[in-house]
Design brief:
Number of strands of chain A: 0
Shape of chain B: flat
Structural class of chain B: mainly alpha
Largest sheet of chain A: none
Strand content of chain A: under 5%
Number of helices of chain B: 14
Distance between the termini of chain A: 26 Å
Oligomer: heterodimer
Number of strands of chain B: 2
Shape of chain A: globular
Strand content of chain B: under 5%
Number of helices of chain A: 12
Order of helices and strands of chain A: HHHHHHHHHHHH
Helix content of chain A: over 70%
Distance between the termini of chain B: 62 Å
Largest sheet of chain B: 2 strands, antiparallel
C-alpha cells in the first residue's frame, strides 16, 4: 500500500515539555554511552600506570605492567590454554552449526521453527546452569573437569552464535544459484561446497569470530568445567582479581579489549554490524 | 523407468521412502541436534535428578531417593532471603537497563549512518569484552578511596570524605546494569529501527506534542523489543554470580553465588543441584510472566489504537 508522504513542515513547534522530554532522553542516552564506554577506557589507561597500586588518574606513563605480564608464566600459560580451547570450540561449532543453519534455511520439513528455537535455546540458558549440569553429567560418568569437558560445555553456549549468524547470511542469498548448480548436474554436496559455502563465507567467518571470542572470554561456565591444572585465562583472572590489586590485570584486560575490537572489525567487514543487531 | 513391472502403488511407496530418506533437507541439522541433546538436555536431566538422590564423594549412592534436600532447603529462611535478593537485584538492574538503554536505542534511530556505526561499535564491543574484565573495571572505578569515582567526587567538592560504594548493593547494581546493558539495547535497536515512521508523523501532524507521540506511539510500537530485552537482561542478572562475588564483597550472597560456593568450594553437590534447579525453574517462570505481560500489553495497545 502506498502511503501519502507526510510533510515534515506540518509538525507542531517544540513546546517546553517537548524540550524537557528531549533533554531527559538525551541525558539518559549520553549517560548510557558513558557507562558503556568508560570502563574499557579506564582499564586501558590504568594499565599504563607506573604505580604499584590501582589509582586514577594514572600518575606516570610506563610499560612496566606489560613487561610484568610478559614475565608472568602463569598468565601466559592460561592465555595459551584459552587460545587452544577457543580454537577447538570454534571448529566444533562450525562443524555442527554451519550444516544446521543450512538445513534450517533451505530445508522444507515440518517443525522447522521449533528446531531453530531448540538450536538457539542455549542462549536463554544461564551459563551457571550449563556449567553445573555438564559438571554433574560428567561426574555421573566419572569424567573429570578437563580440556575436553571445557570445550564440550563451551560449545553448547557458542553454537547458537554460529547458527544464528550463518542463518542470517544464508537467508539473504538467492537460492537460484544453487538450483542452477543442481540443474547442471552437480550433486548436493558439491553444490554446497562449490556454490553455497563460498557465498556464505562472510557469515561463517563472523560466526567463527563470535564463537571464538565467547569461548575465549567465558568465565561462568569455565569455573565449573575447567580443570585446576589447565586453567583458562578468564578463570586465572578471576582468582587474580580477588587478591592482586596491582594494574597487572588491567594490562591483560587491555589485550582482551583489543581482541574484542578485532572481532567487531571482522564482523563489520564481513556481514556488517547491523546484521548482528538482531 | 521404462518397462519395469513396478505398479503405481509400489512407485509411490519408493517415492515416499526417498522423500523420508531426504527428510526435507533436515539431515544436516542432525549432528547439532544430537549434540545439544547429549550435552545440554541430558545434563539438565542429571542436574534435576541430583537433587533427589544421596551423593557421597561425588558418586551417586545407587538406589537412593530422597526429598530431604528439597525439604531442608525450602524450610530454611536463608534460602528465601537469597531468592528474594536475586530477584531484587535482577528486577532493579533490568529496570535500570531499560531506563538507560531505551533512550540510547532511540537515539540510534535518529542518527545518521556514521553516528549509527559509532553507537553500534560502542554497544557491541563491550558485549564481546570479557564480563570479568568489565567487572574488574568497576572495581577500579568504584573501589577504595583512590578509586576514580571518589577522586572525581572529592575534586568536584561534592563530598568531603571518600564514600564506600564497593561491597554494597549499589556496586552490584551498577556493575550488573553496565554489563548487561547491550542485551537490552540490541533488541530495542532492532525493533525501533524497523518501526513505521508514518504513525509518528501522523501523530505530530494531528497536533500531538512530541512527548505525547513518544509515549503514545513510539513506546507502544516497541513493546516486543522491550519484552525481548527485559527477559534477556532479567535472566542473565538473576543468575549471575561473578558480579555479586567481586563487587559485593566476600559475604554478599545471592542464589547463584550460593550455587557456585556449594558446588565448587564446599562440594555439597546435592544442595548445589537443588538450588540450581530452583533457580532455573524460577527464572523461566519470571521470563514467562514478563513475556505474557508484554504480549498482553501489546495486544491491548493494538486494540486501543
Amino acid at each position: 500500500m502506498r502511503r501519502p508522504a507526510l510533510e515534515r513542515r506540518r509538525r507542531p513547534p517544540w513546546s517546553p515539555s517537548d524540550l524537557i522530554g528531549a533533554g531527559v532522553l538525551g541525558t539518559l542516552a549520553a549517560l548510557a554511552l558513558v557507562v558503556l564506554v568508560a570502563p574499557s577506557v579506564v582499564v586501558v589507561l590504568i594499565s599504563f600506570d607506573g604505580r604499584e597500586y590501582i589509582g586514577f588518574p594514572p600518575a606516570s606513563l610506563s610499560w612496566r605492567w606489560y613487561r610484568a605480564l610478559w614475565n608472568h608464566a602463569q598468565i601466559l600459560d592460561a592465555a595459551l590454554v584459552s587460545l587452544r580451547v577457543a580454537a577447538h570450540v570454534m571448529l566444533l561449532c562450525l562443524a555442527l552449526g554451519v550444516p544446521a543453519a543450512y538445513a534450517l534455511v533451505r530445508g522444507t520439513f515440518p517443525g522447522k521453527t521449533a528446531l531453530a528455537a531448540f538450536l538457539v535455546s542455549p542462549q536463554m540458558m544461564p551459563g551457571l546452569v550449563i556449567g553445573i549440569s555438564v559438571l554433574f553429567f560428567g561426574a555421573y560418568f566419572a569424567f573429570r573437569a578437563s580440556h575436553a569437558m571445557l570445550v564440550l560445555s563451551l560449545t553448547v553456549f557458542c553454537l547458537p552464535f554460529v547458527v544464528r549468524i550463518v542463518m542470517a547470511r544464508l537467508a539473504g542469498l538467492d537460492p537460484a544459484l544453487e538450483e542452477v548448480s543442481a540443474g547442471l548436474g552437480a550433486g548436493r554436496l558439491q553444490t554446497f561446497w562449490r556454490v553455497t559455502l563460498p557465498q556464505a563465507l562472510a557469515g561463517v567467518l563472523a560466526g567463527a569470530a563470535f564463537a571464538f571470542i565467547e569461548a575465549f572470554d567465558n568465565v561462568t561456565i569455565a569455573l565449573f568445567t575447567a580443570s585446576t591444572r589447565g586453567r583458562p585465562l578468564p578463570v586465572e583472572l578471576y582468582y587474580l582479581v580477588q587478591y592482586d590489586s596491582s594494574p597487572l590485570v588491567a594490562a591483560v584486560s587491555a589485550f582482551e579489549i583489543l581482541l574484542a575490537f578485532a572481532v567487531v572489525a571482522i564482523a563489520s567487514r564481513t556481514i556488517g554490524l547491523e546484521r548482528i543487531r538482531t | 523407468m521404462t518397462g519395469t513391472a513396478a505398479t503405481p502403488a509400489a512407485w509411490r511407496e519408493v517415492w515416499w521412502l526417498r522423500r523420508l530418506a531426504r527428510g526435507g533437507g533436515a539431515w544436516p541439522a542432525v549432528p547439532a541436534v544430537l549434540y545439544l541433546v547429549v550435552m545440554m538436555v541430558l545434563p539438565l536431566c542429571v542436574l534435576f535428578s541430583f537433587g533427589f538422590v544421596t551423593i557421597e564423594r561425588g558418586r551417586v549412592v545407587p538406589g537412593s531417593f530422597t526429598l530431604e534436600h528439597y525439604r531442608r532447603i525450602l524450610a530454611d529462611p536463608l534460602s528465601w532471603l537469597l531468592f528474594w535478593r536475586s530477584f531484587w537485584i535482577g528486577a532493579v538492574s533490568t529496570a535500570l537497563c531499560l531506563a538507560l538503554g531505551y533512550p540510547l536505542a532511540y537515539l540510534y534511530t535518529v542518527l545518521g549512518s556514521l553516528g549509527r556505526k559509532i553507537l553500534l561499535v560502542a554497544v557491541i564491543s563491550p558485549l564481546l569484552t570479557s564480563a570479568l574484565v568489565r567487572t574488574y573495571a568497576w572495581l577500579v572505578i568504584l573501589g577504595g578511596r583512590r578509586g576514580l569515582l571518589n577522586t572525581l567526587l572529592l575534586s568536584l567538592g561534592l563530598i568531603d570524605t571518600p564514600v564506600r560504594i564497593l561491597n554494597t548493593d549499589l556496586a552490584v547494581l551498577v556493575g550488573m546494569t553496565q554489563i548487561h546493558l547491550p542485551f537490552m539495547i540490541l533488541p530495542l535497536m532492532a525493533v525501533l529501527a524497523a518501526r513505521d515512521r508514518f504513525m509518528e508523523e501522523a501523530s505530530l501532524n494531528l497536533g500531538a506534542s512530541r512527548v505525547q507521540t513518544f509515549f503514545r506511539v513510539v513506546v507502544p510500537l516497541s513493546l516486543p523489543g522491550i519484552g525481548a530485552g527485559t527477559t534477556l537482561v532479567f535472566a542473565v542478572s538473576y543468575t549471575n554470580f561473578i558480579i555479586p562475588q567481586l563487587l559485593g564483597g566476600g559475604n554478599y550472597s545471592t542464589v547463584a553465588v550460593k550455587v557456585y560456593e556449594q558446588t565448587i568450594v564446599i562440594l555439597d553437590w546435592a544442595t548445589g543441584a537443588v538450588l540450581a534447579a530452583l533457580l532455573l525453574v524460577s527464572c523461566f517462570v519470571f521470563v514467562f510472566l514478563i513475556t505474557y505481560a508484554t504480549d498482553r500489553l501489546t495486544a491491548w495497545s493494538e486494540r486501543s489504537r
